[in-house]
Amino acid sequence: MKNLLIAFILLVAQPVLAAMSVDKIVLYLEDGPNARDDVVVSNPDEETLYVQTEIFRVDNPGMENEQRVRVVNPDEFKLLVSPSKAVLAPGERKRFRLMALDRNLDEEKVYRVTFKPVVGKIKAEQTALKILVAYQALVFVQPDDGEYKVDLVEDGNVYRLTNSGNINVEVVEVRHCLSEGECEKLEVSGRLYAGTSIQVADMPENGELEVLLRGQTSERVRFPLDS
Known about the structure:
signal; Pili_assmbl_chaperone_N
């Protein structure tokens, strides 16, 4: 899983897992008042769990110059997480509220929020390797008129799926179909952020391209190919 971050703290030789789980890792928020959603963190472990959060702003998402900038200056906080840290007893669940402060956007803003466990001492007679598993949620703050616009564009000798809209969409599956029911899956997938593209390798010359797109809802679109 791309959004799973794994950190190792070397305490001994035998592995011990510090468990934590979250109920979602992709969130969609609007750029209007009261735009909020919750992430529920659970502690199924037998030890007390300490959770800290970190907020990262994603600049130029999906591009070669993409940067993830940790937000630490209070004046720059456009996404709030409450609480920012918490203590969970064994078996306890805690709700973290995410609230967007961005307003009147022309294009969506992208953030990543890390939920990072911090644990106490290992209660074991033998030394062990304690494994801390942190989760990173992908958060999209979208304008009121948000829309993705996916097209198939010829670029020299190759074709690209491009998104000229102002919000992202995920390309889940691409198939080349010669006729109804006669389709072959192509190795093309990924998230199309606003203003980005994905190359379609080994492009067929006839039939049509069927693309499964997933945003807050899913749809299949078809692009006829020149014969």
